[in-house]
Amino acid sequence: MAVRIRSPLRWVPLALLLAATAVLSGCLGMGEGPQTTIVPFSDHAQRIQDLYVLVFWMAAGVFVVVEAALVYATLRYRRRPDDVLPPQVHGNTRLEVAWTIAPAVVLFVIAIPTIQAIFAAATPPGSDGLEIVVTGHQWWWELEYPDAQVVTANEVHIPVGRPISFTLKSADVIHSFWVPRLGGKMDVVPGHTNHLYLTAYQAGTYLGQCVEFCGLQHANMKLRLIAHTPEEFDAWVQSQQAPPSQAAGKAQEGAQVFARSACVGCHTVAGTPAQGKIGPNLTHVGSRTSLAGAVLDNTPENLARWLRDPQEVKPGNQMPNLHLSDVDIEALVAYLESLK
Amino acid sequence: MATTVPPETGALGRVYPVLWSWLTTVDHKRIGILYGTTAFVFFLVGGIEALLIRLQLAVPDGKVVAPDTFNALFTMHALTMIFLVVMPLAAAFFNYVVPLLIGARDVAFPRLNALSYWIFLAGALLLNASWVAGTPADVGWFAYAPLTERPYANTHSADFYVLGLQVLGVASLAAAFNFMVTIVNLRAPGMSLLRMPIFVWTTLITSFLIIFAFPVFTIAVTLLLFDRFFGTSFYVVARGADPVLWQHLFWIFGHPEVYILILPPMGIVSEVLPTFARKPLFGYPFVVFASAAIAFLGYGVWAHHMFAVGLGPVANSVFAATTMLIAVPTGVKVFNWIGTLIGGSIRMATALYFAVGFISMFIIGGLSGVMHAVPPVDWQQTDTYFVVAHIHYVLFAGAVLGLFAGIYYWFPKFSGRLLDERLGKLHFWLTFVGLNVTFFPMHFLGVEGMPRRIYTYPAGMGWELWNLVATIGAFVIALSVLVFLANAFTSLRYGQRASADPWDGRTLEWATSSPPPPYNFARMPHIEARDVLWHWKRERARRARETKAGEHTRIAGGAVDELDLATLRGERIHLPRPSIFPFIVALGIVLAATGFITSYVISAIGVAYLLAGLYGWAFEPAG
Fold first, then answer.
1. Other CB atoms closer than 10 Å to residue A128's CB: what's the count?
2. Residue of A10, A74, A220 to mutate for B, most B C-beta atoms under 10 A
3. Does residue B440 sit within a domain?
4. How do residues B274-293 score in pLDDT, each as one tens digit?
5. Cα–chain-centroid distance for residue B430?
6. Omega before A8 within 30 of 0, i.e. cis
7. What is the dihedral of CA B61, B63, B69, B73, to 10 degrees?
8. CB < 8 Å to A213, chain B
9. Beta strand A186-188 pairing with A140-145
10. Cβ–Cβ below 8 Å for A33 and B461
11. On chain A, which terminus has fewer CB atoms closer than 10 Å, C or N?
């Protein structure tokens, strides 16, 4: 039947078209970002993506049908000048039973693969799994490889193709461990030990960050996950197991500054008297790509900026301003960058 | 008893009679107006907080506010919008409309009703005093332990959270008991449960929800208060506590709270649609049972807020199933609303725009809700902007649009004037466009991995464009609120005068004048049908046609004979007496709470006020 559209409702179809275009262009731009959730690079992420695609299209279908019915009903049954009392329909039991059952059926279809995926994700790897203990701190990540006896911070190195078993612990409040391209998050709860299992498909660097509000610097509690080929990974483990190279020249001065200042109270450098446990282990800090909870790239300039005033970079973090002289900072930068 | 009892005025009452009359009022309509205006002021406060959040996030590395201020802004924005805006706006409608809808002269306990309002106001001011004290609550509205424990929260910010919400909870509980008793006991003769307007049903169901949900929160917060002030260790991990306990208690309250927020607007929409479609609500019993089912199932889904906590596959599967189940009655409601519109003769008034807008947007929030009912999908989406989008489609595009539908619908009843329809439509379209420009891109941000509650983000994450778009949208919403304010203020003064029944209403509130007299109805109506006013008007029209008696043929736009004010002359109507004691008791409660962060001397004074107020209350003649 002819629907006569009067102003201003004649704009509704145009507005819907515009909105659909905007939504579509938005959707097409998805999957590009370094923390996108819809481009999986692990079995864990793939499992989620398969469900997401199923649920997304079901929701999209329901959305189109129901919104179309609503818009049609509203526009089609607008009051006409020749207004007469419409038939006083009170309901239709058959119809209502039908539209109670229909969504239940749709949801049943979603529930089956959902429960399968939940149990699949909770299945630990066999004996070939690599355990990595992740400890959340306000506001950085401590990483320990129990078998290799390696301790590092904020950068997780894993081999591709081998199941990883993350053991998640917290040193203070609740955090949440998340590398979106490799799959869903898992909370890091003090007093609990949580587990997250995944096998990465492809070598590369993946970004992640804490996703449970954990206080002032929650926004700056990030991490990088570097997936290596198995050979590269073995080489990385060996480099981390080796003692740090002997400091020389400028770095030698820096080592002395490090040893006589407050640094040693909080940080560990293996093979030296510095055995503090409050801040990140710095044994191989020079080999890392980032600083300060993966917030800054690891460059001499950024390291100097951090040492000059950590509170300026990340207000509220546990490292105080040590009021180091420029000379000391220069020496410390040389020393720390030498800890490969 | 006369119809208006002059209150026993003290010195204050003689000097400021208007102020005194508001401080002592027990009239449900005036209390409704107090709730409504207070909530609207906080709507502006919460809106300004939202704009500051959006300004900070408009571009990468934003420098508009400091990190601690940002954390306070998102905490206070949530607390304000949930506890100081949506709940009290719903309470404003409960107060003003429910007694009218059921043909009562007031609520069951008028002084308790006044007490609810004054405690609510006191709690709201206490919570916001945290800004003035320089330690605004900044632990998130969910306040996960152990972040709220010492040594992680050493300022008064968490104390303000604990005390403010504790006080607000008392107000909600008192109001819920009051409305439950009112609806059960004070319905006009003949109004059986299945003749009650849907809004009365959703008020009743919401009252049940509050009564079963808030005590859990009260206990959770009391334990936290003990931890913080008296050194207990209910949530202190170092002394063996399990912080997940807080999460369970919080969400056993927190999820029903979502339905406490959304059911009243659903009830409003269920009133607005049939009136403007000139057709009864499609499948009334289905809508009633769906509302009750949502409330009942709402207690069995709390752990879907905790899918990433590590509760294990069995718990996750069970809560996924119950959460999906709750989509069924929710879907039923949407289909019944559409069924109401189909075949109707729809008057395109602003109230109807907001009601249809509510449905169209609530569908989006409902569907994204089904997405994160699937735990693995939720593991990607939870604590990202995808969930921020979801809750705003439910609570802004849902609850707030529904409440605006109610404002446009009932404004003539409580002001005696109509809101301007042209400004109203402008308000609607600005809101509608603004909310979609603000909140839809947040889905994209979530999919691209942007976490919630971060005060800063670097460039290069793919988040720049949609954050900027969302910020622009937020200012469109702000503009729409200004249009509404202009409309409300000009219409209050110059608006077209409203008849008793400007919309050809179906329910009893349209059978009395606009605004109604203090006693609401001169005579007790007798309810023979659902949509009883339509029933009366159509019966009269039918009789008029049969008798061809011309003088009774006016159908719409006038008070109905049976309840006509003219018949009142000389009658004695029993009305409750005004009382200052609710105000004094509320003052005592807030002083007692404030003492925890200032000095226990103040607490002692507060307790003295409280006891004196209760004593006076107990021996005051009730009416």
1. 9
2. A74
3. yes
4. 999 999 999 999 999 999 99
5. 22
6. yes
7. -70
8. 71, 140, 144, 147, 383, 452-453
9. unpaired
10. yes
11. N
Domain that holds residue B100: 28-517
**Distance between CA atoms of residues B361 and B567, nearest Å:** 46
Mean pLDDT of chain A: 91
Dist. CA B522–CA B560, nearest whole Å: 11
Rounded-to-integer distance, Cα B500 and Cα B100, Å: 13
Q: Using DSSP, state whether B104 is helix, strand or coil.
A: coil
Give the pLDDT score at B2.
36
Is B379 close to A184, i.e. CB distance below 8 A? yes
Task: Examine residue B467 and state whether it is found in any structural domain, yes or no.
Answer: yes
For chain A, positions 5-34, list CB contacts with chain B under 8 A: 8-9, 19, 22-23, 26-27, 29-30, 32-34
Q: Which of A33, A96, A210 sits opposite B462 (nearest CB)?
A: A33
What whole-number distance in Å separates Cα of residue B220 and Cα of residue B238? 19
For residues A245 and A308, what is the distance between their CA atoms, to the nearest angstrom?
A: 25
Please provide the distance, in angstroms rounded to a whole number, between the alpha carbons at the two ends of chain B: 9
In a domain, B531, yes or no: no
CB atoms B364 and A209 under 8 Å: no
Q: How many helices (H) and strands (E) does chain B have?
A: 20, 0
Task: List the one residue out of A217, A194, A206 whose CA is nearest residue A134.
Answer: A194
Question: With b meaning 16 or more CB within 10 Å and e meaning fewer, what string describes A221-250?
Answer: bbbbbbbbeeeebeebbeebeeebeebeeb
Closest CA to A307 of A283, A331, A340, A274: A331
In this prediction, residue B245 carries a pLDDT of: 96
Residue ranges per structural domain of chain A = 35-76+94-242, 250-314+321-338
> What would the pLDDT profile of A245-273 be if each residue is shown by its tens digit?
777 888 889 999 999 998 999 999 988 88
Give the CATH number for residue B132: 1.20.210.10
ipTM of the complex: 0.93
**Architecture of the structural domain at A250-314+321-338:** Sandwich (2.60)
Residue A140's beta-bridge partner residues? Answer: A137
Return the C-alpha torsion angle A199, A203, A207, A208, nearest 10: 10
Is-same-fold flag (A35-76+94-242; A250-314+321-338)? yes
What token pair was written down for A250?
């400028």
Mutation target to probe the B interface, by most B beta carbons within 10 A, among A37, A44, A172 is A37
| Cβ atoms of B561 and B553 closer than 8 Å | no
Torsion sign over Cα A317, A318, A320, A326: negative
Q: Is residue B524 part of a domain?
A: no
Interface mutation target, options B377, B437, B545, B555, chain A, most CBs of A under 10 Å: B377
CATH topology of domain A35-76+94-242: Immunoglobulin-like (2.60.40)
Q: What amino acid is encoded at B215 in this protein?
A: P
Using the beta-carbon criterion (under 8 Å), do B348 and A9 form an inter-chain contact?
yes
pLDDT for B9? 56
Closest CA to A189 of B248, B305, B242, B139: B242
User: In this structure, which amino acid lies at residue B33?
Assistant: I
Domain count for chain B, please give it: 1
Res B562: pLDDT: 45
Minimum distance, in Å, between the CA of residue B414 and any CA atom of chain A: 26
pLDDT tens readout for residues A63-108: 999 999 999 999 999 988 877 889 998 888 899 999 899 989 989 9
Cα separation, B55 vs B37, whole angstroms: 27
